[in-house]
Design brief:
- The chain is mainly beta and 179 residues long.
- Strands 1-3-4-5-6-7-8-9 form an eight-stranded antiparallel barrel.
- A hairpin with an 8-residue loop joins strand 8 and strand 9.
- The protein is globular and about 50 Å long.
């Protein structure tokens, strides 16, 4: 009997939380991005150009704070080769907003994993991201967003000299839809 009561109360609590919480989805494009790869040997490479796209989900459990997840894809071009450096990333996020009338400042940070592909070699690596942006509430349902992502990943290699720290900055524009 106690288990059923606890289960019913838990379901009711989750239903109430979902009913009064705010859910949103977002889509942003990165028309410009740059990546730096720094090896343990102090050798480093900078991309000439990069672009990407990011889709996200947010669950606002408070008027100003949220949790969520992002899935992003980035493509970088290094001038000395025809190969593309592709990054597929998923991050669990936590963030907050600072409202200023219809505008708001948007900050979030997250941790996750990247699938990095270069020259037919692909591997998963741990990553961390920080986003800082500005949003404009067009109406209660649609918001326009813009900002920059700082993305860091650590690539371990069996030969220590080939281990690297990869840092990328992606300029983003997009929209968020509140459900």
């Amino acid at each position: 009997m106690k288990k059923k009561l606890v289960l019913v109360l838990t379901v009711c609590l989750l239903a109430l939380t979902s009913a009064f919480a705010s859910h949103s989805v977002s889509l942003q494009v990165a028309p410009y991005a740059i990546q730096n790869i720094r090896f343990q040997t102090s050798k480093e490479y900078d991309s000439e150009y990069g672009f990407g796209v990011k889709a996200g989900y947010r669950y606002a459990y408070d008027d100003l704070a949220f949790v969520g997840a992002d899935l992003s894809f980035s493509d970088y071009n290094y001038g000395d080769t025809d190969e593309r450096y592709l990054v597929l990333s998923t991050l669990a996020k936590y963030g907050f907003m600072i409202p200023i009338n219809n505008l708001y400042l948007d900050f979030d940070m997250g941790a996750g994993v990247d699938l990095r592909i270069y020259d037919s070699v692909s591997k998963f690596y741990p990553s961390f991201g920080f986003y800082m942006g500005l949003g404009y509430k067009f109406n209660e349902m649609i918001e326009f967003t813009g900002g920059a992502d700082l993305h860091v990943a650590w690539q371990d290699h069996s030969t220590e000299a080939f281990s690297s720290t990869d840092t990328a900055i992606l300029c983003r524009l997009g929209a968020r839809v509140n459900l």
